[in-house]
UniProtKB/TrEMBL annotation, chains A, B:
It is found in: Cytoplasm. It comes from Demequina capsici. Gene3D superfamilies: Phosphate transport system protein phou homolog 2, domain 2. Coiled coil: none annotated. Homodimer. Plays a role in the regulation of phosphate uptake. The lineage of its organism: Bacteria, Bacillati, Actinomycetota, Actinomycetes, Micrococcales. The keyword Transport applies. One of its GO terms (biological process) is intracellular phosphate ion homeostasis. It holds the Pfam family PhoU. The gene is phoU. It comes from the Bacteria. This is Phosphate-specific transport system accessory protein PhoU. InterPro entries: PhoU (IPR028366), PhoU-like_sf (IPR038078), PhoU_dom (IPR026022).
Length: 219, 219
């Protein structure tokens, strides 16, 4: 019974890693679709999102069955409850990558991002890619250095989001309304990706260390 | 033991109702703050959001303890797992009301919404208020008519969000960039409030009827 439980907990962890890798791919592809106006990549992110939704459903069902059949307590129970939250956050990160890909697809053959904002979005894309890689690393190894990287990437994403937003209000900016909306919304999508990554990271840090550090795992 | 469990399940339900009422108040106040440029109301929404976060934490902790101590199965277990999802969705609805209040506060003494868009935002505010009331009703009574109202309000919110967005791209619109950004982001916040309400509604419909209707409870 115990061995079965251990195997099932391990499968649950593997499902989350699979979701994390899927999100990492989606973010990398959405980034490139956006920065290079690549409509095929944009399309692949949009088409593949359903797969992420399927894994999330599997994770949810596995969590309910694990609790019902094994009646875990203590850290095992908290790990399972955290898995529910983490899968929801990963699914949402995938949605945000999808929204970015949709904007890239809509603008095609043009870029959704005017030249003036290319550098900011390269920064957003790089930080989001980094955070996705760090989330996968954290899920795989529980190495807390990855948690620190996630917080640092989130700071970068917040700063760049704020820069992007402020740049639109600068009288020197003379983009179209569509460009204004794309920049504002996509910068926000990147910023939200960072928030979800931080939420996942806090959950895992809590499981590993028992330390809430005064903040709730807000995911 | 069973009586204690029943009492604890009832307290869990009460916590969710309390969260729902809190969200309803936050949405109503954010609406009025936005539509009438009332900075005191905006301030109260922002200040009160921490209370919602506290109740969410209580709900989460209660769910973990209920599972650990009572080892529920079947519908009881699914009800508790759903409570975790519902509390997260309610907390997020509160955040969105807070974001709307923040925009109202920032624009004060002006209105964040230009006269040209007042009617659309009256519609968004009314649909969001309705959906919050329906969510409370659904949590209190499990009356499935409330679920139908939530879906109908979500359709209204989606339509009005889309109208607001399209109106910004109309060459006839000559608002400032700040107005453009406020309209786009706030219409999106209202639209997201509707999405979270639908997610809550699907969870409860599933608990009451066992019917997934082919869609996942995506919250």
């Amino acid at each position: 019974m115990r061995t079965l439980f251990t195997a099932e907990m391990s499968e649950l962890a593997d499902d989350l890693i699979a979701m994390g890798r899927h999100v990492e791919t989606a973010i990398n592809r959405a980034n490139e679709a956006l920065l290079t106006a690549n409509v095929e990549l944009a399309q692949s992110v949009i088409a593949d999102d359903a797969r992420l939704d399927d894994i999330e459903e599997t994770v949810d069902e596995r969590c309910v069955l694990l609790i019902a059949q094994q009646q875990p307590v203590g850290l095992d129970l908290r790990t399972i409850i955290s898995a529910l939250r983490i899968s929801a956050a990963l699914e949402r990160m995938g949605d945000l990558a999808q929204h970015i890909a949709e904007a890239a697809r809509r603008a095609y053959p043009d870029s959704a991002i005017p030249e003036s904002h290319h550098a900011i979005f390269e920064g957003l894309a790089a930080a989001a890619a980094e955070t996705a890689t760090a989330v996968v690393g954290l899920l795989e190894t529980r190495d807390l250095n990855a948690a620190a990287a996630i917080v640092s990437d989130d700071d970068k994403l917040d700063d760049l989001h704020s820069q992007a937003y402020q740049s639109l209000l600068d009288p020197a900016f003379n983009g179209t309304t569509q460009e204004t909306l794309d920049i504002a919304l996509m910068a926000r999508f990147y910023e939200r990706i960072g928030d979800h990554a931080v939420g996942i990271s806090r959950r895992i840090v809590y499981l590993v260390t028992g330390d809430h550090k005064g903040d709730r795992a807000r995911i």
